[in-house]
Amino acid sequence: MWKKIKAHDYYLSYNKLVDIEIFLTDYITLWCINQTLAQFLRSVKDNNIINMKEDVMLDKALIILSNPEDIDSAQINQECNSVNLILSKRFGYPFKLNIILKQASRELFFQKITQPLLRTIQDLNTSQKELIKFVNDKDIEIETYKRLEPNMKISYYERTEKFDEENYLKNYTKYDDYFGSSSIPSSLLNKSLIIPEASVIQVNNQTLDIKQKIKEEYLSQIETVNLNGDEICNMKQIQDIPIDTKVETSIKKDPDVSVKSETHSPRKKIKKLNLL
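Predicted structure:
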């Protein structure tokens, strides 16, 4: 099922079986990614400053993926054939997903977007025809009662007007405009395509290692300068949300969650600058 992302005209869907497949669309383009559970958890861990058990981490991640409209913020940055999706939510402490999705093939777009929409259109068109037939049958039934019970008050039968199918259909013409009077071919509704392997992008361990290296280099930019005996920490380039007192209290209450000391204690990565 597609779920709208908060404050954006994008929709998110995911499948979790053996692997995790994540899909993003604006109904013009489809982006996707496929990861093993281990790869997905490692990516989530690398993008958060909180240590937690894997089952807790997975639960929080799936809550965000399942309810992308019930989050604190979302960032969607599109670049060429990829999209960087960042979803953030607080669970008493900050938690975010940072996912890079690649543009899918036209075959996968048909399978995930076009075909479901065609099936929905056909389903609505069929239900409309069945409803019209039902209403017309009721009108015939009422006319039969009139003939069988001539002494019954006329006002009883005229509480509602007879259904006018022709005028009713004049208000709903889009199906005929696009598809004519015929139904959508079942061969199209049930068509099965071979999806190219490159359509569902898989993230390997090498990619994750590169991301981890970039993150470590980024964090190493924290500089501590000793001036007149006072330590001044330059934290301007750190984008993670600081852990305030309220968050620390929440973390202490949860035995499955803790702050990553290596990323939250800048003094452990000190670069002495020679200012002479």
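Summary: The domain at 3-107 is CATH 2.170.210.10 (Dna Repair Protein Xrcc4; Chain: A, domain 1).
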